[in-house]
């Protein structure tokens, strides 16, 4: 049974991502009222992305606080922790890390599809918690310590606390900080493969049960097992943001994109170039952005941030975990501190230093994933 929230301070979470939903779930579990505002029209308005590894001390800790750890474990794929590193020139196995043995200490980092995890969190909330199709365009802190939200239809609504959990291009962030995301110099081009064990058996063997990585200078291929026999692949390029325009390639012309990518990966083993030739999904261009590190702000009553809105980092395994932990931490502070402002100050006092360390580590992780020079 989902919890029935009591009345209390007016709390709005902008963004129905993993961090915002975790915060809402923990608040409701403690009988607090909360509203989640999401610009998308429904939960299935768009695909939710690939697979995530949830760490014991962050993502799993947040799910424990949310009372959802058992349900997560029923969906998770411990075998997805396997990693295979291949030589780009001949696809020889350079390194292999299997999943931890059953019952190993530390909890491991089992994989779960992002969409499955989001669905788990959504299903745990009281019906009507998420207001779908409510596009927030900005936030204005008010002199009395509350915050006014502006919506795309011209309406406004005041809350005692607004939590910006609305991602990289947050509409709440300007209420606290002038920082804007910058391009990292790396772009991921995404594609996917369906029913891999039957339709793409050679690729399935190459990837194994978890993830496969092969890298050269400024070029990396990553392929990851998702649920239901799907493999999602990322073609990582250390190139200018407009690499396709400079090459005269129309991103809408799949054959042109394919041909250009094959030229970029000339000299790579043909078993790896299979990823470029044979995807079942269209290529999707995803330039990677980050916020400055460190990214901090002076406390402002009535508003705060979590997840990518607070510390956009490269996608190397920390972002979703950190966002969920922050959602749980903020909710815990809101139910234990004497007032909203005390809670937000306590939360930011822990979150900001922790995010600085994580952002530094993520930047180093991206440099390792897509090296600019020979190591």
From TrEMBL:
<comment type="subunit">
    <text>Monomer.</text>
</comment>
<dbReference type="InterPro" id="IPR043683">
    <property type="entry name" value="TetX_monooxygenase"/>
</dbReference>
<comment type="function">
    <text>An FAD-requiring monooxygenase active on some tetracycline antibiotic derivatives, which leads to their inactivation. Hydroxylates carbon 11a of tetracycline and some analogs.</text>
</comment>
<keyword id="KW-0521">NADP</keyword>
<feature type="binding site">
    <location>
        <position position="53"/>
    </location>
    <ligand>
        <name>FAD</name>
    </ligand>
</feature>
<dbReference type="GO" id="GO:0046677">
    <property type="term" value="P:response to antibiotic"/>
</dbReference>
<dbReference type="GO" id="GO:0071949">
    <property type="term" value="F:FAD binding"/>
</dbReference>
<feature type="binding site">
    <location>
        <position position="308"/>
    </location>
    <ligand>
        <name>FAD</name>
    </ligand>
</feature>
<dbReference type="Pfam" id="PF01494">
    <property type="entry name" value="FAD_binding_3"/>
</dbReference>
<feature type="domain" description="FAD-binding">
    <location>
        <begin position="11"/>
        <end position="198"/>
    </location>
</feature>
<keyword id="KW-0503">Monooxygenase</keyword>
<comment type="similarity">
    <text>Belongs to the aromatic-ring hydroxylase family. TetX subfamily.</text>
</comment>
<protein>
    <recommendedName>
        <fullName>Flavin-dependent monooxygenase</fullName>
        <ecNumber>1.14.13.-</ecNumber>
    </recommendedName>
</protein>
<keyword id="KW-0274">FAD</keyword>
<keyword id="KW-0560">Oxidoreductase</keyword>
<dbReference type="InterPro" id="IPR036188">
    <property type="entry name" value="FAD/NAD-bd_sf"/>
</dbReference>
<feature type="binding site">
    <location>
        <position position="46"/>
    </location>
    <ligand>
        <name>NADPH</name>
    </ligand>
</feature>
<dbReference type="InterPro" id="IPR002938">
    <property type="entry name" value="FAD-bd"/>
</dbReference>
<feature type="binding site">
    <location>
        <position position="114"/>
    </location>
    <ligand>
        <name>FAD</name>
    </ligand>
</feature>
<dbReference type="GO" id="GO:0005737">
    <property type="term" value="C:cytoplasm"/>
</dbReference>
<dbReference type="GO" id="GO:0004497">
    <property type="term" value="F:monooxygenase activity"/>
</dbReference>
<keyword id="KW-0547">Nucleotide-binding</keyword>
<keyword id="KW-0963">Cytoplasm</keyword>
<keyword id="KW-0285">Flavoprotein</keyword>
């Amino acid at each position: 049974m989902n919890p029935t929230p009591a009345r209390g301070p007016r709390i709005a979470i902008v963004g129905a991502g993993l961090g915002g939903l975790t915060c809402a779930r923990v608040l409701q579990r403690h009988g607090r009222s909360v509203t989640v505002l999401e610009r998308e029209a429904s939960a299935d308005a768009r695909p939710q992305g690939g697979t995530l590894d949830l760490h014991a001390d962050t993502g799993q800790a947040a799910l424990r606080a949310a009372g959802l750890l058992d349900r997560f474990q029923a969906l998770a794929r411990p075998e997805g922790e396997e990693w295979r590193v291949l030589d780009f020139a001949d696809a020889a196995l350079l390194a292999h890390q299997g999943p931890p043995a059953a019952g190993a200490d530390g909890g491991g980092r089992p994989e779960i599809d992002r969409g499955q995890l989001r669905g788990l969190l959504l299903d745990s909330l009281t019906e009507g918690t998420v207001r779908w199709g409510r596009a927030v365009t900005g936030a204005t802190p008010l002199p009395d310590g509350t915050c006014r939200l502006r919506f795309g239809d011209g309406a406004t609504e005041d809350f005692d606390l607004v939590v910006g959990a609305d991602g990289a291009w947050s509409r709440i962030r300007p209420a606290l900080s002038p920082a804007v995301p910058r391009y990292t110099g790396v772009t991921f081009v995404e594609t996917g493969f369906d029913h891999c064990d039957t339709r793409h058996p050679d690729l399935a063997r190459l990837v194994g049960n978890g993830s496969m990585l092969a890298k050269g200078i400024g070029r990396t291929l990553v392929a990851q097992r998702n649920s239901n026999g799907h493999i999602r692949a990322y073609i990582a390029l250390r190139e200018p943001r407009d690499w396709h325009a400079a090459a005269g390639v129309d991103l809408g012309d799949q054959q042109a994109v394919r041909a250009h990518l094959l030229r970029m990966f000339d000299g790579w083993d043909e078993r790896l170039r299979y990823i470029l030739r044979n995807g079942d999904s269209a290529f999707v261009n995803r330039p990677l952005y980050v916020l400055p590190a460190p990214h901090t702000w002076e406390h402002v009553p009535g508003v705060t941030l979590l997840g990518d809105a607070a510390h956009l980092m490269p996608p190397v395994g920390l972002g979703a975990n950190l966002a969920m932990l922050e959602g749980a931490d903020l909710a815990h502070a809101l139910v234990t501190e004497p007032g909203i402002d005390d809670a937000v100050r306590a939360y930011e006092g822990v979150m900001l230093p922790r995010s600085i360390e994580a952002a530094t580590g993520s930047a180093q992780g991206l440099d390792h994933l897509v090296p600019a020079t020979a190591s």
